[in-house]
Amino acid sequence: MFDLFATISRVLFSGFQSRRQPLLENLALHHQLTVLRRSVPRAKLQSADRFLWVLLLRCWSGWQRVLVIVQPRTVVAWHRAGFRCFWRWKSRSPNGRPPLDRDLVCLIRRMWQVNPTWGSRCIQAELAKLGIAISDSTIRHYRPKPRRSASAQTWKTFLQNHAQALVAVDFFAVPTATFRVLYVFLVLAHERRKILHFNITEAREVKIFMRLSDGRI
């Protein structure tokens, strides 16, 4: 930072009576030499260096002609990033969203805990009776998170504990190369992935079975 301001001061004082174009060119060249001297072998630019080149981009049309240490598109990217930061700061909310009163937060959470079957609209209506206007989204935000008890069993644990007693049953159709349709019935044990039972039949036999089950035959 000190090197940058020293370079600017030296160039301004030495070319105070000269024209604007040579002065800016001299400033740009001196700055690049300063950056290269302090960061050998690779140029390391600081925030003040980037700010200087953004200023040169704005006030001098020939800045690309003397630029050596970075690409011109890099300086343009710095310029755009500066604009984004400026408009983000400009469009920020002056006051922000007012924080919710701590007592009201505690009241909402207590109402959720005491009345677990209520929804956010019910709590909103009850608070409206007290003269408290609040959105249902805010009420849902402060809903207490359910805690799983130590004795509660997850679905994965249930399947692992009862895998030896569980079976998978499937019934599917398989078309053959001779344009026949075979129906497959399969029973598979979960514990060892063992096939307990399977059977294959043709479409004609399935239709007969369905008629028998419906009492048509």
What does this structure look like?
With 217 residues, the protein is mainly alpha-helical. It has three domains: 89 residues, no CATH class; 40 residues; 52 residues, no CATH class. Helices cover 52% and strands 12% of the residues. It has nine helices and three strands; from the N terminus they run H-H-H-H-H-H-H-H-E-E-E-H. A three-stranded antiparallel beta sheet has the order 1-2-3. A hairpin with a 5-residue loop joins strand 2 and strand 3. Helix 1 packs antiparallel against helix 2 and helix 3 crosses helix 4. It is flat and about 100 Å long. The mean pLDDT is 77.
Give a quick set of tags describing it.
52% helix; 9 helices; 217 residues; 3 strands; single chain; 3-stranded antiparallel β-sheet
What is the fold's blueprint, element by element?
Layout: H1 2-14, H2 20-38, H3 47-59, H4 72-90, H5 102-114, H6 120-129, H7 136-141, H8 155-161, E1 167-175, E2 181-189, E3 195-202, H9 203-214
Antiparallel strand pairs: 1-2, 2-3
